[in-house]
């Protein structure tokens, strides 16, 4: 099930947690949904990204395992097992073989040097921790968990008491963020920040106030691990469409266009968290817009 791409001297492996229909009708999931545009793109959308007969988008939840000469990095940590997500059934009390799939890629939790959290939504931080003897403990005990300082302050009940009134946010923070903070494993970053070899963290606000992305730099373009800057590949063709959970729609549009322009101009591959197969794409310019050019593993 694991698939690996070679980007320069680094390898990038997709570690799947789940793949299938989303939780919301398309017109609710993406604000701006236009069936005419969808019909024109059905040739590549169905069935890997959209199921026309059921009118359902297909979305993946996966991590990216990046291995350079000197470091092992996990980008986003999916939803996790045994987590109370009663507010979102797709992620509630899961029991997935995520760690077994990581092991199949040749990596034990102790081998991970960095966990990059693009933001702190439930489906990106769940495997930050695991349940042991009734306690949530860090899954990756030797890693530095890289989190945007602004994002962390947005979620913390100490710095943002109003946000803590949201029970969904409070539960996620308590079981998947606070334990790694208390363990002293979090590295808070602000603005451009280098980690390891040819890896650059950049601000990518919009979906959440402190959302960040990770660039794998290479002369031939490299890659961009963009988290939820782009949720579904139809947004490559319609970058103004807004995912329903984006907190700052206008900023999300600006960030999305900036990332698409970067990929189109440099040749960098786009590696989002929720795209269906084949999960990775290059970006081409078409007129004043963009198009996906899918890149399979290998």
Question: What's this model, at a glance?
Answer:
With 298 residues, this protein is α+β, with helices and mostly antiparallel strands.
Account of the protein in words:
The protein is an alpha+beta fold. Helices cover 25% and strands 30% of the residues. It is built from ten helices and 19 strands. The chain has helices spanning 26-29, 35-40, 42-45, 98-104, 122-125, 149-155, 161-164, 167-182, 234-237, 249-266; strands spanning 3-7, 10-21, 30-31, 50-51, 56-67, 72-75, 114-116, 129-132, 135-138, 144-148, 186-189, 193-194, 199-203, 212-216, 223-225, 242-243, 269-271, 281-286, 289-294. The strands form five sheets. Strands 1, 2, 4, 5, 6, 7, 10 and 11 form an eight-stranded mixed β-sheet that branches. A five-stranded mixed β-sheet has the order 12-13-14-15-17, with helices on one face. Strand 6 (72-75), helix 4 (98-104) and strand 7 (114-116) form a beta-alpha-beta unit. The two termini are 14 Å apart. The model has no long low-confidence stretch (mean pLDDT 96).
């Amino acid at each position: 099930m694991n698939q690996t791409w070679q980007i320069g001297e680094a390898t990038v492996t997709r570690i799947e947690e789940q793949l299938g229909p989303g939780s919301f009708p398309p017109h609710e999931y993406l604000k701006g949904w236009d069936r005419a545009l969808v019909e024109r793109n059905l040739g590549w959308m169905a069935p890997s990204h959209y199921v026309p007969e059921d009118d359902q988008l297909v979305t993946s939840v996966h991590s990216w395992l990046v291995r350079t000469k000197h470091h092992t990095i996990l980008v986003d940590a999916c939803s996790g097992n045994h987590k109370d997500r009663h507010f979102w059934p797709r992620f509630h009390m899961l029991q997935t073989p995520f760690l077994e799939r990581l092991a199949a890629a040749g990596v034990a939790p102790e081998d991970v040097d960095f966990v990059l959290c693009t933001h702190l939504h439930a489906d990106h931080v769940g495997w930050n921790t695991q349940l042991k003897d009734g306690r949530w403990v860090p899954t990756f005990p030797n890693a530095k968990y890289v989190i945007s300082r602004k994002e962390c302050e947005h979620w913390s009940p100490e710095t943002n008491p109003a946000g803590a009134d949201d029970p969904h946010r409070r539960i996620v923070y308590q079981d998947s963020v606070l334990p790694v903070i208390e363990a002293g494993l979090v590295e808070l970053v602000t603005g451009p920040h280098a980690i390891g070899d040819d890896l650059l963290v950049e601000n990518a606000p919009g979906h959440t106030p402190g959302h960040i992305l990770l660039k794998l730099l290479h002369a031939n373009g490299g890659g961009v691990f963009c988290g939820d800057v782009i949720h579904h590949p139809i947004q490559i063709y319609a970058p103004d469409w807004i995912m329903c959970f984006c907190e700052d729609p206008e900023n999300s549009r600006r960030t999305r266009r900036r990332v698409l322009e970067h990929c189109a101009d440099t040749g960098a591959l786009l590696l989002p968290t929720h795209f269906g197969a084949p999960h990775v794409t290059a970006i081409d310019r078409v007129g004043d817009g963009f198009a996906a050019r899918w890149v399979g593993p290998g």
